[in-house]
Amino acid sequence: MASLQSKAVKGVAALGVGKGIGRLISFANTIILARILSPDDYGLMAMAMVVCGFITFFNEIGLGSAIIQREEVSDKQLNGAFSIALLASFVLYGITYLLAPSIGGFYNNPQIGDMLRWLAVSFVFGGLATISSALISKNMQFKALAGVEFLTIVVQALSTLAFAVTGYKAWSLVFGYVISQLVRMIFIIFVARWKPTKLGEFKEALSLIKFGLTVTYSRLTWYCYSNAATFIVGKVSGEKQLGLYSMAGTLATLPTTHITSLVGQVTSSAFAKLQNNLVELNKLLNGFTAGLSLINFPVLAGMAITAPELVPILLGPQWLAIVLPMQIMCVTGFIRTVSPLLTQALTFAGKAHVTAQYTTICAFVIPSTVLVGVYWRGIEGVAILSLLAYSILTFILLLLCKKHIKMKVKTYLLQLITPILASLAMVFAVFLSKMLLIDYLNIIPLFILEVTLGIFTYLLWLIYVQKKGLYQLKQVLQHLGLSQQKLTRWPFNNLNNNHYKT
Asked: Under 8 Å CB-to-CB from 378, ≥6 apart: which residues?
């Protein structure tokens, strides 16, 4: 268990460095694009991508997850899975190409149909890379995967910006995405060093299909409820309101989504290896939940409290309408950044059918909530009711984990206490400084002061008030290979390790 956890933590670190730097570039690119493109441009892309993203899940029929979950997979099964994924990708491309005009008609904008036809090319790229990508994750080649992710993000950022500055507007987002997916496919295949030895061995892959279809169903329902707001707001309120909502969501999730995503990439293979040892699986789940919350919660809390200054500084005054929705989405992020680990644990512990049941419930609740919210108070109503819905649904998910993977809910929730309290202390300190200094400082120096004060408050809370978070950080650093000698220095020197073990 120790070596597996250490390998998983190192995998997260490797992916974190690659994707972290890439995300910084992506974030800077988003800010630049927000000043070149309009909310309408982002709205058009969001409408097209919600359809494209839904169809993408049929690309591999969950075969990648099935390969990761299986302890042993034969060459014939890999050949068969590749053949199925490739065939599915071409079929999906053809269907999307034919239906694109009708989808554009649904949104009353033919341009969306044209954009979909280009975006659908990425289906073929995804089908070609399916098996190679699964093998990279299964073999825990996370350093190589980090490099691929970094290159993909950089290529997308640079190509999108190049098209935007030359006047392609919403199309710059389309072309940037397609080019990045082509580059990703090439490097994934190169890194995996796997190629099919024979095509058409469909029967050999049938044993992978059952698990794969269950996973695909869960992902489809997850995608439906996660993107319900994009679909409904776009239809009811139009592309401008959707563009505002989409940008609010982008800002609220951009600093944390990649962290949650990369942890999920690593833990899927780790959970699969521990599927017959639920005690150790839960220890790993709790450990990663603690680490994820220590990183994500302060970022989300900081963005929520500084949003009135952050939005006009980064995006300009034309985006001020997103401040309140963004703040609410940041609070929702406290739930949405840790709950994916719970569904990962269920799925790769062999309980994919339970995940499917949960996502089915979500697929009914969230869209209904969004529909009521958008008619109630527009995008603000959607954000408010989504927070309420996700809170209730996550409680249900905890009960399912307690029943099916023997998770101790109290122990799990205890992992969240320290980062929540530290984040609240940070919010209070920033709020107080804002009230005292808002009449004396311009917006930029006020924002810099808020960020600096927030970081120091959060760190000092962990070091001097609630040291359990510091102990959890020390454990992570140990798994990364940092020497014990260095971990006896400040601020770790006064820790009583036995006192903080759960």
From this structure: 237, 241
